[in-house]
């Protein structure tokens, strides 16, 4: 290999190293952005999960409160049946 060829090869290698460094810097920058987005997304997911769990707990409490305060339908039905039977018996006896 002659001296001019060696010089040209050295210049090409130097340019190639520069391009590789530039490409690696671009990749590192892109990765840094992706890592930041991932971290932000993870933080948002944790916040949404905490909000959801709080809302779910509130709704469970409301359901339990509604269950405690609901009308006892079977008891009312039985009471109505007993009152109806008593009124029927009284109507039959008093006739």
What is the structural class?
mainly alpha
Largest sheet: none
Distance between the termini: 134 Å
What would you report as the Rg, rounded to the nearest angstrom? 41 Å
Mean pLDDT: 92
How big a fraction of the residues is strand? under 5%
**How many H/I helices?**
2
In helices, the fraction of residues equals over 70%
Anisotropy-based shape? rod-shaped
Order of helices and strands: HH
Low-confidence stretches: none
In total, how many beta strands? 0
What does this entry look like structurally?
By secondary structure, this protein is mainly alpha-helical. It has 2 helices and no strands. The longest helix has 67 residues, at 3-69. The radius of gyration is 41 Å and the shape is rod-shaped.
Properties at a glance:
single chain; 95 residues; mainly alpha; 2 helices; rod-shaped
Quick structural gist:
This protein is 93% helix and 0% strand. It has 95 residues and is mostly helical.
